[in-house]
Amino acid sequence: LQSHNRTHTGEKPFKCKHCLKAFTQNSYLRRHNRTHTGEKLFNCKQCPKTFARNSQLQRHTLIHTGKKPFKCKHCPKTFAENSGLRVHNRMHTGEKPFKCKQC
Q1: What does the pLDDT look like over 30-72, one tens digit per residue?
Q2: Boundaries of each C2H2-type domain copy (predicted)?
Q3: pTM over 0.85
Q4: Which is nearest to 91 in space by CA: 80, 75, 78?
Q5: Structural domains of the chain, with CATH
Q6: 25 — alpha (psi -120 to 50), left (phi > 0) or beta?
């Protein structure tokens, strides 16, 4: 409960020794520390790749399975990652989020 209360108070008592980031939970700090140490605890069972976060490993395994769970609502295209779907959706919406500074 104390940890949850920090989301409301904004208190971040767990501070990184390497940079200015601070966290509400010690587990978040430990996970963040891997960005500085390069420690990668999650190993792919199908290739030699390793990852700092389980979520990265899960996303990577889609390469081996061929699964593409992200489906376009406008056409039959599917994507392994949500980011690919977001970029693709711009084709349908005409959204152009990047502006040329010279035009």
Answers
A1: 999 988 998 899 999 999 999 988 999 998 999 899 999 999 9
A2: 1-13, 14-41, 42-69, 70-97
A3: no
A4: 75
A5: 1-37 (3.30.160.60)
A6: beta
